[in-house]
Design brief:
Number of strands: 7
Distance between the termini: 113 Å
Shape: elongated
Largest sheet: 4 strands, antiparallel
Organism: Deefgea piscis
InterPro entries: PilP
CATH architecture of one domain: Roll
Number of helices: 4
Strand order of the largest sheet: 4-5-6-7
Strand content: 25-35%
Protein name: Pilus assembly protein PilP
CATH class of one domain: Mainly Beta
Helix content: 10-25%
CATH topology of one domain: SH3 type barrels
Length: 174
């Protein structure tokens, strides 16, 4: 008996699915799909690859160091740093990390006191070298040091530039 009851309930539930309650929707779908046909656009035509011949073998390669090495050996202006001299201690530091903290004077000779990043004080005078750009001290005054640096430009030529290292602000207030 339980089986019959289960069959009756199942058939009653299925009869609700076969009704014509959505017949208007089904008719509309049929009307709308009458003229439709799928269309696939053709693939675009592939462009033919044209090889570009590289003909710049005669032009100087900007990534080769041979031009800079040649410029170091034979500079047209004759300006080049002395690579054979013994480097001084202050040439191991960037000029921005060196601080002028005072001066000493003996007669007419003025020497500047430089504090290096290692915390030590060094004396420099006219003719001393400091900084990593072959900077030679050209003049020492009570408030600044004037340096002549020799730097390499983008073309591999050595050029001279003047740099000034001033007395540290904290030391000037003392």
């Amino acid at each position: 008996m339980k089986r019959w009851l289960l069959y009756v309930l199942l058939l009653t539930g299925l009869t609700g699915c076969f009704g014509d309650e959505h017949s208007d929707l089904k008719e509309w779908m049929v009307e709308q799909s009458k003229g439709l046909r799928g269309k696939i656009e053709p693939l675009p035509e592939a462009k033919v690859y044209i090889a570009f011949p590289y003909e710049a073998f005669e032009i100087a390669d900007p990534f080769r160091t041979s031009k800079m090495e040649l410029a170091k050996k034979t500079n047209g202006s004759g300006l080049a740093p002395n690579m054979n001299r013994v480097k001084e201690v202050l040439e191991n530091y960037d000029l921005e990390k060196l601080r002028m903290v005072g001066t000493l004077q003996q007669g007419a000779a003025v020497q500047a006191l430089i504090r290096a990043p290692d915390g030590n004080l060094y004396r420099v005078k006219q003719g001393s070298y400091m900084g990593q750009n072959f900077g030679m001290v050209a003049k020492v005054s009570e408030t600044e040091i004037t340096l002549k640096e020799i730097v390499e430009d983008s073309g591999g030529d050595w050029v001279e530039r003047t740099t000034v290292l001033g007395l540290d602000d904290a030391e000037q207030k003392k």
